[in-house]
Amino acid sequence: MTYRAPVKEMRFFLRELAAVDEICGAPPFEEASPELVPAILEEAAKLAENVLAPLNGAGEADPPRIVDGQVRETAGFAEAYRQFAEGGWSACSASPRFGGMGLPGSINCAVSEMWAAANLSFSICPILSMGAAEALELHADEELKARYLEQLVSGQWTGTMNLTEPQAGSDLAAIRARAAPAGSHYRIFGQKIFISWGDHAMAENIVHLVLARIEGAPDGVHGISLFLVPKFLPNDDNTPGARNDLRPIALEHKLGIHGSATCAMSYGDDGEGAVGYLIGEENKGLSCMFTMMNSARLHVGLEGVGICELACQKALAYAAERVQGRPLGRRDGTIIHHPDVRRMVMLMKSMTAAARAICYAAAGAMDRALVGDAAAKDRFELLVPLAKGWSTEAAQEVASMCLQIHGGMGYVEETGVAQIVRDARITTIYEGTTAIQANDFIGRKVQRDGGAELSRLLHEAGETCAVAAKSERLAAAAGAVRDNLGQAKELLQWLLQESDTTRAAAAVNFLMGCGSLIGGWLLLRSALAAEAAMEQDPRFHQSRIRICNFFAGQALPRAQAHFSAARAAALPDQWLTDMALGV
After folding, report:
1. Is 303 one of the annotated active-site residues of the chain?
2. Residue 301 falls within a domain, yes or no?
3. CATH classification at residue 77
4. Residue 313 lies in a domain
5. Is the pTM of this model over 0.90?
6. Apex 12 CA angle, 7 and 17, nearest 5
7. Which residue in the list 9, 16, 113, 431 is annotated as catalytic?
8. What's the CA angle centered on 78, arms 73 and 82, to 5 degrees?
9. If you count DSSP H runs as helices and E runs as strands, how many of each does the chain have, helices first?
10. Which of 200, 281, 397, 576 registers the highest number of CB atoms within 10 A of its CB?
């Protein structure tokens, strides 16, 4: 089987959870209309299904390589990228001022999910370009915008994010790359690692956003600046000119996403240094880069959703045709009739739906903030670490269940399931590990406002439960969500009074518990909408209710376990230290 985009479900969640129909037409989304949404999703599905998905296995068989100092991408990727750019997909949510479509970000998130599901390795490149364009639009001066933004938005050029160094993984305070002032620009020296699509020949130029320290800057994160460093220095007419002093020096040999060119990059090897241009203010680079990172974190969450969807489709197709054993109560039949296979398939589908619900709700909040809803910005910031952290952890489990349903056939390469498992693994690490997302959630997002925004969300969830409790179809699910709301509120107040160490120890369990709870609440909201529209499409809307109820019964109980584990968060520090040292 091959990937098929779940357009109807995407459209449903965009309407009911992201409220995209209400956002379309409002500034700055004047170019969008609700009638456009289905057409955009259908066209994106054609590209994902017919162009990107057939190349997914090619990246495994023929990964990128360095030839004469230039990365050569997998055969077929360049043509696919040409079709992607010509279709305007790089420009979805960019400002019309720079050639963008000006669509709500939630629509862009839906199509991004398709790219990730169809071909995760390929999808990483344009998503980074979109993030780079967003960072430039918000923080660069007008001269840089005029020279670089239209090319990024059109897809004529691509963008990257250069943070990590050999001695500095997630600890950006340890960055050593340096920038020397040179008149109207800077000279960049240093090395970066794990740079996704750091080099390729799919586009005319590559715009690297690089974190570095200006000579004499303070130590730590307060001395980091952000620079735009192009692969080729543009001529006056913006055609690529001389090669800048930067190059890929190695390709990482990775567990998964083999089709993605993950480079070690070196700046300044020729002695003069790579020409770079300051973005924003000196020593304020981390705040500028966080614009790109917040967008990237949401899109990595969508990568998790895409992986979940692909794994669901493969598992269901296999289970519907594989004959193995005799199902209980039947003389024959395929394995979909085995109760535990049905349990796994439904758990996969319900977790995928919950992850999609969280990500689309976050994207909708982002859009509402842009149309002037001040409270929506707080909701978006609260949901981003959940969208990234919970959805990518869900992808690990859903991919693993896909392999389990395939049995031994899943463990061999020709089914493609092993690739899904490998590709999924990076998503919990990209743009900050699950623990980093959890500490961001509990520290910056919850503790910062004394739990006010999370309390508002929990109150909204309680109101949803009160309405759903009146429905015969949804009363049990409403009760399950309501029971966990009480535990979440109690745990929130306890955590706010505890030490930073206890909060950090409890953080991952708190995030995972809140993710399960909020996913259950959003599925309950969607099920209420489905019940109200039952006559329009009975089969589809009944499936929304079944998935909600299954999640409430089989996945939501995990929230209680995570909340209980968070309560028991105190760690025996000395014992752990002794154990690590072999004492």
Report:
1. no
2. no
3. 1.10.540.10
4. no
5. yes
6. 130
7. 431
8. 155
9. 19, 12
10. 200
